[in-house]
Amino acid sequence: MNALIEYRAKWAAERARDAFLALADGTVFRGVAFGARQDALGEAVFNTGMSGYQEILTDPSYAGQFVVLTAPEVGNYGCNPEDEESRGLFLSGLVVRRVNPPSNFRATESLEAYLTRHGKPGLYGVDTRTLTLHLRDHGTQRAYLHVSGEPLAEAEAVARARAWEGLDGQDYAARVSAPEPYAWNDAGRFHVVVYDFGVKRNILRCLAAAGCRVTVVPARTPAEAALALRPDGVFLSNGPADPNALPYAQATVRALLDARIPLMGICLGHQLLGLACGARCGRLPFGHHGCNHPVKNLLDGSVAITSQNHNYALADLPDCLALTHVNLNDGTCEGVRHRALPALSVQFHPEAAPGPREAQALFRPFVALMESAK
Fold it and tell me: Cβ distance 348 to 373 under 8 Å?
């Protein structure tokens, strides 16, 4: 306890509250800079998970966003290479209430050192409860994070946030996707080609655990090239930003559907499947971000608490798609299945990184589709 008090006192003595997050609606939240000292633009969203901050930081789906953590204490168990979900950090920055020194045998570095090493800015000392309520009531906001220490008027920061292009209409999947194909593992009963729109490593682990040999391909890989690998199934991964800005991916999904290859999508992959079939995909007021979202499975009546990270949702489903899952908080679409073709998808993250794990069984229907095809 004394070490924690001294740690916070040291930070308070060394750093003034000259950093802030300026929202496009003119609201400003002041705090203390930590991590990389470089200003950034992004979209402010809140995550309601109580743990799993390293998995959140390394989720490529947060590209272009400032993540506001509602958990009041962050950093307690530090960071380590084993909990990384991708090859880097793609988010714009992190906003928290308190940052603590690590006290865990698995930690190899502190949260601040981790952010600094990856060149990502952070802001602590913020009333994140008030900020979260503001985003919930007024919607997701474009924002400017000022942590550089250089003089900057709040009004100028607000103006920069308003002038930013935002995420709508932007293809961030191509920015975070792997540049080249690669093999994740070398053995399995089924060969699955995974489209990397921002894939998380635990998706690949779950597929491998389900008996799949996994080959990962970049987001812009044509369907013909994927099918030339002779897969038993194709998987459409999660990813960031606006699915409407990926017409090439929608065309790829349509070609894969025409080939009648077993197909499964998660998150962005779910949205792309819906768009390829004729559904509409629109922006949610403040998105779903966290690991405590209840989802009902309409096929068996079960309810699972799920991990989610998305700003858009499918609506106006065409007749060829059957609704299989709904969000019990707002009734939005959380899963579909094609009525005639071997294709299914879910909006949430059954791979559970961070948890919970109760939806991981949803990889089984995809394996069943491949078994039926064989």
Answer: no
Distance CA 212, CA 225 (A): 19
- Residue of 288, 293, 310, 349 marked catalytic: 349
77 among annotated binding-site residues: no
Q: Is 170 annotated as a binding residue?
A: no
Residue 258, both tokens? 């025409």
Using omega within 30 degrees of 0 as the cis cutoff, is the peptide bond preceding 240 cis? no
Instruction: Reply yes or no on whether the pLDDT at 204 is more than 70.
Output: yes
pLDDT by residue (tens digit) across 310-333? 999 999 999 999 999 999 999 999
- Annotated binding-site residue? 309: yes
307 in a labelled binding site: no
Known catalytic membership, residue 351? yes
CA distance 306 to 294: 6
Interacting residues of 120 by C-beta distance below 8 A, sequence separation 6+: 35, 36, 57, 89, 91, 92, 93, 94
Instruction: Output the CA angle 274-62-221, nearest 5 degrees.
Output: 50
3-state SS string over the chain? Answer: CHHHHHHHHHHHHHCCCCEEEEECCCCEEEEEEEECCCCEEEEEEEECCCCCHHHHHCCHHHECEEEEECCCEECCCCECHHHCCCCCCCECEEECCEECCCCCCCCCECHHHHHHHCCCEEEECCCHHHHHHHHHHHCCEEEEEECCCCCCCHHHHHHHHHHCCCCCCCCCHHHHCCCCCEECCCCCCEEEEEEECCCCHHHHHHHHHCCEEEEEEECCCCHHHHHCCCCCEEEECCCCCCHHHCHHHHHHHHHHHHCCCCEEEECHHHHHHHHHHCCEEEEEEEEEEEEEEEEEECCCCCEEEEEEEEEEEEECCCCCEEEEEEECCCCCEEEEEECCCCEEEECCECCCCCCCCCCHHHHHHHHHHHHHHC
Which of these is catalytic: 79, 206, 267, 281? 267
Kindly report, residue by residue over 87-112, the tens digit of the pLDDT: 999 999 999 999 999 999 999 999 99
